[in-house]
Amino acid sequence: xxxxxxxxxxxxxxxxxxxxxxxxxxxxxxxxxxxxxxxxxxxxxxxxxxxxxxxxxxxxxxxxxxxxxxxxxxxxxxxxxxxxxxxxxxxxxxxxxxxxxxxxxxxxxxxxxxxxxxxxxxxxxxxxxxxxxxxxxxxxxxxxxxxxxxxxxxxxxxxxxxxxxxxxxxxxxxxxxxxxxxxxxxxxxxxxxxxxxxxxxxxxxxxxxxxxxxxxxxxxxxxxxxxxxxxxxxxxxxxxxxxxxxxxxxxxxxxxxxxxxxxxxxxxxxxxxxxxxxxxxxxxxxxxxxxxxxxxxxxxxxxxxxxxxxxxxxxxxxxxxxxxxxxxxxxxxxxxxxxxxxxxxxxxxxxxxxxxxxxxxxxxxxxxxxxxxxxxxxxxxxxxxxxxxxxxxxxxxxxxxxxxxxxxxxxxxxxxxxxxxxxxxxxxxxxxxxxxxxxxxxxxxxxxxxxxxxxxxxxxxxxxxxxxxxxxxxxxxxxxxxxxxxxxxxxxxxxxxxxxxxxxxxxxxxxxxxxxxxxxxxxxxxxxxxxxxxxxxxxxxxxxxxxxxxxxxxxxxxxxxxxxxxxxxxxxxxxxxxxxxxxxxxxxxxxxxxxxxxxxxxxxxxxxxxxxxxxxxxxxxxxxxxxxxxxxxxxxxxxxxxxxxxxxxxxxxxxxxxxxxxxxxxxxxxxxxxxxxxxxxxxxxxxxxxxxxxxxxx
Length: 698
Prior knowledge:
Layout: E1 2-10, E2 13-23, E3 31-36, E4 44-47, H1 48-51, H2 57-61, E5 65-68, E6 76-79, E7 84-87, H3 93-97, E8 104-111, E9 116-125, E10 133-134, E11 139-144, E12 152-154, E13 158-159, E14 168-173, E15 179-185, E16 191-197, E17 208-217, E18 224-234, E19 242-243, E20 247-253, E21 261-264, E22 267-268, E23 279-284, H4 287-290, E24 293-295, E25 301-304, E26 315-323, E27 329-339, E28 347-353, E29 357-358, E30 366-373, E31 383-387, E32 393-397, E33 402-407, E34 418-427, E35 434-444, E36 452-453, E37 457-463, E38 471-474, E39 477-478, E40 488-492, E41 496-497, E42 500-501, E43 506-508, E44 514-517, E45 528-537, E46 544-554, E47 562-565, E48 578-581, E49 590-593, E50 595-597, E51 608-614, E52 620-622, E53 628-631, E54 642-650, E55 658-667, H5 682-697
Parallel strand pairs: 3-9, 11-18, 20-27, 29-35, 37-46, 48-55
Antiparallel strand pairs: 1-2, 2-3, 4-7, 5-8, 6-7, 8-9, 10-13, 12-16, 14-17, 15-16, 17-18, 19-22, 21-25, 23-26, 24-25, 26-27, 28-30, 30-33, 31-34, 32-33, 34-35, 36-39, 38-44, 40-45, 41-42, 43-44, 45-46, 47-50, 49-53, 51-54, 52-53, 54-55
């Protein structure tokens, strides 16, 4: 046990009170503190961390807090930096516990991660801050002059809100010649007094006697209250009112309507006339009870005059007095027990919540702590707590009416990003009451999705001789993650095309995924190539995926036909080439063949042949697609020995391209028969060939 001292200034004198802490045996680390009421805000109750053997630095990280049962004021709080419990609000024991001898506050010290609870009991000691008070401003007595010495007259009790030693400890009467005071102890420890006639009265000498009654409590220093006693000397009244029972008990349900009769007290007086008429009043009642109950002076009915709440007070003790017309009186007690009614729905408190929750959180992880309190039956009534189905969460019962909110399966933000979790708490009353609380929970993104391309592969077709910088195609990838985790950037995977880096052929816009040509393509050099495009998100770590883009080069008619035979004149070693045609050649005989090729493809390389100039136009013909030169008729002696042909070779492109060549034919069986062959001038032939070429092109 640890003990310290607290000093309070009151009426210029010092009062000493003890603050003590007791570790309750077998309570799993629970504590009990005893403090005086009326401590200043910020005053230290005790060091909870030290008394529990804990590190005060861990209180902040574990979100330590003090929870007070019910919805009353907090009164005390915890300093998570120092681990000390401190006064948060003024504590008035009389307002808090009325006339109860024992007054305490029950707290729960809640620690999270992991959840840990400790019971903290704060006992409130009474401070002598209330003076004794009488229920009326004066006491009136009518005493017959025939009263004999020793006759006793009960007096109204004074009431002190303080309890124990600070309550009323005695009465005193100012010195006079007729009366003395007898003080008695009640069964509950209180004090009552009687006026004792010490010297007979003589109405003819003195019709009224005024006395001063003082009630004193046992505080240090003591407090007191006074009331004057006015005694009127009358003729004889020798019977006191007598109650039908010394203690009256009643049970009253809370929320009883105003005007409800709680019970009826009854007293009889054997005297006749005015001396036998009895009236009733409360002789000792707390301020709280005085606001809730009234008594009919004539009938003795005690009725409800204010709201009765079991959660405020469970029982009331009231002193009553029956007086006759002469002031003779007797006293009794009333005990009213308040019974609980299920009039309070459970209240749901969200003590802790991790929000937002990462989507990769493991199933079974605790994300929140729920506490449910029901003020009925002092909050000990069990409650059922549920959440709606079809959500990946559940409530696990923990300590008392604490519940842990845990995940039941993996979360996927891309499927559901927010949850509205409705928690319903229901008590076990005959007519159950329930309440609900909705928690909005967000799921935070984790980079768990790589970018996904719209297509598994892409094909692009580009016409050769394209402009550098022109768009080839566009790729698109989508990432369902959030913000930077879903932001996609594009790049080319390093590779080579014909031994040259692919980056020298194409480039890609990192933001849009548009692929551009870096240079002009030539179908005749290569006809296709492949590019690997990488889509990468901006998460940490980043995720990526690849896709293949096949680029196909389409042909353009950009090459003229090329003559392979006869050899172009510029490449000949002799001045010209001559084909020999036998004199006996018949119609249809093959005399020569023009061979040509085109570097283009498809229809751009489909070649056709045509004779555009001939020495004898009807003598020879050429195959349109074969290039074979044949005799169109039989060769005759009259035909010229020297035959010159100009052949045009044309492709099928749009527009088409063409070229020409010259074929020299010699009709003879023997080259020696033509001596003048050497006179054929190459320049002349070339000049004529040029003219033919111009005509053919036009």
